[in-house]
Specification:
The protein has two domains: 194 residues, Rossmann fold; 122 residues, N-(1-d-carboxylethyl)-l-norvaline Dehydrogenase, domain 2. It is built from 14 helices and ten strands. It is globular. The protein starts with a strand and ends with a helix.
């Protein structure tokens, strides 16, 4: 497949290197120091103590990279509006978009039905511009259960996890879904398909919508967050609200919040992606993790006082830290 990766950071860089090693034709859309580094040193990945290097086509002119079979979107939600024109420039008649992103994506209401059917979520697509350039019909939904970090421009480190869940927003088994599954599996990823990818997205959000912003606010790793009785109780209250929203939109969660926290605890002292962004002075993915869920709650009539408080605090923190 001709595959372009937009956002060669922790997850995008990891995916790009592994896909290139498996024989796929990889292009990377990059700019500035990342583009310079990839052109000079190739795309690099450190995993299990070894560093791998692959040479890929890289450029800051998406039209020159040409139409692709698949575009993997690895940028943070805060950067999507900026790179959407580049993604659009690489869409041929049959190009699929695979967003490897956290939180509620711009296409989330597509195929969901109910009160949210095809609604625009202004928190992640304020004027509908992203959906106009990147039609939801192009999307194959994706949930990544893995962690890593960007150690330098064009150089990612993979820390743990290897699991991908992919699915059509309409819940169908399609030819493109099967092809993407086979392509990812051939690159060594653990891939499963889902008949309700919205539920998988909501489940992951339910697990990380508290750890991420709390870690950014406090500078604490996940083990210390879970060790504090008061903070743990607050996080559970937010999770209960998110579970109630999920029940209203067809994404029910049967697991208890405490059980989910025990899974997080088994991973050890994790520095969340939002804490990494906060320490680096990068914009925080607040809208995808908290703004959009609160918007959905308002549309479904679910009260979210704890989620509101967390959103307000981390939004204020981000504003003040960038001032």
């Amino acid at each position: 497949m001709r595959i372009a990766v937009v956002g060669a950071g922790a997850i995008g860089g990891w995916m790009a290197v592994r896909l290139a090693q498996s024989g796929q034709e990889i292009s990377v859309f990059a700019r500035g120091e990342t583009l310079d580094a990839v052109r000079r040193n190739g795309l690099r990945l450190t995993a299990n103590g070894d560093t791998h290097r692959v040479d890929v086509a890289a450029g800051d002119d998406a039209s020159a990279l040409g139409p692709q079979d698949l575009v993997v979107v690895g940028v943070k939600g805060t950067a999507l509006a900026e790179v959407a024109p580049a993604i659009a420039a690489m869409l041929g008649p049959q190009t699929a978009i695979l967003p490897a992103m956290n939180g509620v994506p711009w296409w989330f209401t597509h195929g969901l039905g109910g009160v949210l059917s095809e609604a625009t979520l202004t928190a992640v697509d304020p004027d509908g511009r992203i959906s106009a350039m990147l039609p939801p019909e192009r999307v194959v939904g994706c949930v990544v259960h893995a962690s890593g970090a960007r150690v330098a421009p064009g150089h990612a480190i993979h820390q743990n996890g290897n699991r991908f869940i992919i699915g059509e927003p309409l819940g169908i088994e399609s030819t493109r879904l099967a092809q993407i599954r086979e392509t990812l599996a051939a690159a060594g990823f653990d891939v499963e398909t889902s008949g309700c990818i919205h539920m998988d997205i909501w489940y992951k959000l339910w697990g990380n919508m508290t750890m991420n912003p709390i870690s950014a606010l406090t500078g604490a790793l996940t083990d210390r967050i879970l060790d504090d009785d008061l903070v743990r109780a607050f996080a559970l209250s937010v999770m209960n609200e998110a579970a109630e929203i999920g029940r209203h939109i067809g994404c029910p969660i049967s697991e208890s919040g405490l059980n989910r926290m025990q899974l997080t605890r088994k991973l050890g002292a994790i520095k969340t992606s939002m804490l990494q962004d906060a320490e680096a002075g990068r914009p925080l993915e607040i809208d995808a993790l908290l703004g959009a869920p609160r918007e959905i709650a308002a549309k479904t009539g679910v009260a979210t006082p704890y989620m509101d408080a967390l959103h307000g605090l981390v939004r204020l923190y981000a504003t003040a830290s960038l001032a």
